[in-house]
């Protein structure tokens, strides 16, 4: 089961778990006869940042980052994903700090740059000799990157670009690494050549020298204390006529010749902009996947606690009841467990299509990574919150991780694209496919919409348990929802346009259907990845458990999305049958709960005292006098 | 409007706001030409605790706590509530630390004690000469207080009680004030007299001397770093044959004579136990109300930000759109605004029935405070999360409060009774009323269930806008839901009993209906308090806005609770009409958003930089060099 969920690079993962557990830098603490490792969060921001750097140095030394930028092919990318996931399971700050350097800075050099940049920067970046950051967001522009205000012009006399921050809202903001450690940055900026606005481009600029002194014409300030991720030094940058060599333009998409002539194979600035951002999908891939691992940690802790913690007895002189034996407690945790398993498969699928990407699959990857980034990070926040409450007061102790991770992971729902904005983009893309298919009067092809070419699924009026647990019914009802919502969305938007609204505004007004549709797309695809994973397993007990998990995933989605009742995909009788089946599945999954969280493959040291003997861990003898 | 929402003691509130703004102890910081006050959360737990104590000493000196325990009557209680609310708006740690001392320790002396305790302790407690804590929870028992394991016996030879912690799970846990500062504690313990188990009783024990040294036979340990509230020193306590004078039993309900004879006016241990806990309702009252103020702060910040922050333009060269002009952004924030106003009235109602309590109203107060504590704190967490995301990255900065408050307030959903457990108690109480009414074949009387004596409301098949906005329809549909759910719940529980389940277990199995019913009760009562508040206002623009808010509160509750569709209280056509009306109401409330958050009466200094000129607040000139 672990193989199915982790998917790849098991030995690499275990090796890195071991490296961290061995070192004092990862703050091992004894409790209840076990060792747990976790950062000391009772530290100031400054101390946490320093610890992050020390941990990076240790991992660098051990060769963890070897091949992260110079490695070639899908295998190297999968190893990097696996190791990065393991790092995130220890501390999100550490993962984000490394993500900015290797995925954003390094990825920008790889994907936006050409040979001259690769030769000059990749090796030193991999060796952390130079420390990169990624200056895209500004105070005034986050999700709307196209609206950034930083301006770069070209001086043909010296062959240099000149970068400026023209106003306070153009200051670069939230730039991870900028406040303390980064030596270089990617700068996203409007490029103006001889009075022509060529749109957003990316440049390399140095911001600190090797001794850590800020470079001339650069100003840097700290973003200050955050609700989490205080191990990352987010900063702000102002550019005052900063001059950089012409070669520092990352020129994979467009270039400027020494005489100032602007060249690009892509004429349309919108398409050029899209081409610029496409390779950054890796950021969303890692965010989505790390959200699943965070959910796994919290569920492993909360479920283990619920198997040792008791509360209230049903009759006098009877033992108190284990938390997980309460049907209500099962209902709180086991659907989240099933969803997390489903999303684990979805994450593996996303990584797979990403590393096997082709120019043709870019659009699909963009849409799927947007949908999964939003869906998986929202799911994670909800799981963390439920697990924290399910652990009661113990969930509030930092050492028990569950509650604390909420602060560390909260940022995921808005960084690298606000989740709501991403989901709107998903629906927009689906609508685009819809309109294109109608226009060319051809079947749907792409984004998994092929099911719309079939006849509309019919949901039986009487749902038996075996129908409810069948993959056929589950697929049908998910496809029905997606199909109908897409039709409704298309109709509503076109009606609004017919009433005189612009297409843009019509879309904005139809946000509720857009949200519903985005969810329908995401859920349908997750179910599909689940079925694909299930198909690789041969008949036996594990396949049976997978079937239960998949049914729970599907049915809880039916239960939770009011669209099924609202739009009549399910009758109230059907909805009652679904609810009853969910309760039944809770009981059926209950005996497997411990085995399932064990199959997450998280070493005990990465869980917390309440996951094991929490009475002993809290005993007087464990108090350090 | 502010008068209606704050309800009482406006001058006292303003005076205390002023006291805090004036003092350096409250960490004033300049940003964007304004001063903001907020604790420095980039401090270790130890530093935060020290600052809490300094702030208490300052407020004590200024007379803030005068009359908090020696004052008499409803007026003194309302003043205490008002000042405590204002303190919580600055920092939840400060409010909780004071709450433990004045409401829990002080309240226990007042309510569980008799004249001898009042004379001895209340004056010194009010003057903070002694510092009290409240040792109820144990490692092994939180919500289930009746199951605590601490044991107290009586030694007639010396006239002393002897308190013991018999095992590790009996250690007192989460005791606010115990780790560093408290000199005395209330100890909840099983009382065994001559081998007779008399159930849980409360005693006074000293744990530190005036110099802060731990007393003999007491052991204390720290609970450690928490995800929030680090300004409160939560600790653990073990008792090893701790001897206290017989007079230290808080004897309002039961007493032990010098010879060891046990006396109580209440023979049934269960009823005795209930009588013990009843007066502690004040804790739940303050939690519920403080949750509303937290929601107000976050909405004031998020809505003000959404009125200055722009993102994306609808057409080239058009200015970007203000966030609050997006229908989707209105839909995120304005329903929460309406709910928060509604819950503000609910909070005032709760305070009012509490300070006017009589022995007859105790049950009602217990049920209402349980329902509102759960509903208002859940609402607060949801509001904070939505506001944090609505503020994008700025919501992650600690200085902007919204994101940080999540960690500080999270504990509210599980402390002083887990919300789920409380809501089950609400439904249990409703079921009790139901069964009693059926048994005595008399009309319903109490807990607001009188509406069940009327004929069942009928919902029109076509809902017009004016019907949807009418208080009649809103009341009808809320009553219909409560009535039907209570019927269903009673039937389901009795069916399960008929199938051989114990009453207790039948109840546990019917948790979903219990949850739905608890929500229905809570919503119906909140709507009622809204209507009562509205009735005090004479016709005019303010009454119109109140009407919009009330309709939004009612309709968003219809939209969000799937029970309306699931059980057919609304047809799908009706549900579509509700959804449309919510969107319409968003547009109608949009022009009033700023006025509404201003009417919360929160001084600017208690908001944050993004609520005002956030560009200026982030300018280079504001950076401290």
Describe the 3D structure.
Chains A, B: Residues 280-431 form the Acyl-CoA oxidase C-alpha1 domain. Chains A, B: Keywords: FAD, Fatty acid metabolism, Flavoprotein, Lipid metabolism, Oxidoreductase, Peroxisome. Chains A, B: Its cofactor is FAD. Chains A, B: FAD binds at residue 176. Chains A, B: GO terms for molecular function: acyl-CoA oxidase activity; FAD binding; fatty acid binding. Two copies of one chain form a homodimer. The first copy, chain A, contains 21 helices and 15 strands. Chain A is an alpha+beta fold and 625 residues long. In chain A, strands 3, 4, 5, 7, 8 and 11 form a six-stranded mixed beta sheet that branches. The longest helix of chain A has 29 residues, at 327-355. The interface between A and B is large, with 88 and 88 residues.
Category by helix and strand content of chain A: alpha+beta
Q: How far is the N terminus from the C terminus of chain A?
A: 43 Å
The greatest interface here is: A-B, 88 and 88 residues
The whole-number mean of residue pLDDT values of chain A reads 96
Per DSSP, the total helix count of chain A is 21
The main sheet of chain A comes to: 6 strands, mixed
Primary descriptors:
homodimer, 625 residues, alpha+beta, six-stranded mixed beta sheet, three-stranded antiparallel beta sheet, 21 helices, 52% helix, 12% strand, lipid metabolism (chains A, B)
């Amino acid at each position: 089961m672990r193989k199915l969920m982790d998917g790849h690079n098991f030995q690499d993962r275990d090796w890195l778990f071991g490296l961290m557990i061995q070192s004092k830098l990862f703050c091992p603490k004894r409790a209840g006869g076990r060792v747990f490792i976790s950062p000391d969060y009772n530290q100031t921001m400054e101390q946490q940042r320093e610890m992050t750097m020390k941990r990076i140095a240790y991992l660098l030394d051990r060769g963890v980052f070897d091949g992260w930028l110079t490695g070639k092919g899908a295998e190297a990318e999968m190893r990097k994903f696996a190791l990065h996931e393991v790092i995130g399971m220890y501390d999100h700050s550490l993962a984000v700090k490394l993500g900015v350097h290797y995925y954003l800075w390094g990825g920008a050099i790889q994907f936006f740059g050409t040979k001259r940049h690769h030769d000059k920067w990749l090796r030193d970046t991999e060796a952390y000799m130079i420390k990169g950051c990624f200056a895209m967001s500004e105070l005034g522009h986050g999700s709307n990157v196209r609206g950034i205000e930083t301006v770069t012009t070209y001086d043909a006399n010296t062959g240099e670009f000149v970068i400026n921050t023209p106003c306070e809202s153009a200051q670069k903001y939230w730039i991870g690494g900028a406040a303390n450690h980064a030596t270089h940055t990617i700068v996203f900026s409007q490029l103006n050549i001889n009075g022509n606005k060529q749109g957003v481009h990316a440049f390399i600029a140095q911001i600190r020298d090797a001794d850590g002194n800020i470079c001339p014409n650069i100003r840097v300030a700290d973003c200050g204390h955050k609700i989490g991720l205080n191990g990352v030094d987010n900063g702000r940058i102002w550019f005052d006529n900063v001059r950089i060599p012409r070669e520092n333009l990352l020129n994979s998409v467009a270039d400027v010749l020494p005489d100032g002539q602007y060249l690009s194979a892509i004429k349309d600035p919108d398409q050029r902009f899209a081409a610029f951002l496409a390779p950054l999908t890796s950021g969303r891939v890692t965010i989505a996947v790390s959200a699943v691992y965070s959910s796994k940690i919290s569920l492993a802790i909360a479920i283990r606690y619920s198997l040792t913690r008791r509360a209230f007895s049903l009759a006098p002189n009877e033992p108190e009841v284990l938390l997980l034996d309460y049907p209500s407690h099962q209902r709180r945790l086991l659907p989240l467990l099933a969803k997390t398993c489903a999303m684990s498969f979805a994450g593996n699928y996303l990584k797979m299509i990403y590393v096997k990407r082709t120019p043709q699959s870019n659009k699909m990857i963009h849409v799927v990574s947007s949908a999964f980034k939003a869906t998986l990070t929202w799911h994670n926040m909800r799981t963390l919150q439920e697990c924290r409450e399910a652990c009661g007061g113990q969930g509030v102790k930092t050492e028990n991780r569950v509650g604390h991770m909420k602060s560390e992971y909260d940022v995921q729902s808005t960084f690298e694209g606000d989740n709501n904005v991403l989901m709107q983009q998903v629906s927009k893309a689906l609508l685009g496919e819809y309109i294109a298919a109608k226009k060319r009067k051809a079947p749907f092809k792409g984004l998994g919409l092929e099911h719309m070419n079939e006849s509309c699924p019919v949901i039986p009026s009487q749902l038996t348990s075996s129908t409810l647990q069948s993959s056929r019914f589950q697929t049908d009802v998910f496809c029905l929802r997606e199909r109908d919502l897409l039709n409704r969305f298309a109709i509503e938007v076109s009606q609004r346009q017919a009433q005189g609204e612009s297409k843009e505004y019509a879309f904005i007004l139809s946000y509720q259907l857009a949200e519903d549709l985005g969810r329908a797309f995401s859920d349908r695809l997750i179910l599909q990845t689940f079925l694909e994973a299930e198909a690789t397993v041969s008949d036996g007990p594990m396949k049976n458990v997978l079937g239960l998990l998949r049914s729970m995933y599907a049915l809880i989605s039916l239960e939770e999305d009011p669209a099924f009742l609202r739009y009549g995909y399910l009758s109230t009788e059907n909805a009652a049958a679904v609810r009853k089946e969910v309760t039944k599945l809770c009981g059926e999954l209950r005996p497997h709960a411990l085995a399932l969280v064990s199959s997450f493959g998280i070493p005990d040291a990465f869980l917390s005292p309440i996951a094991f003997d929490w009475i002993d861990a809290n005993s007087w003898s464990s108090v350090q006098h």
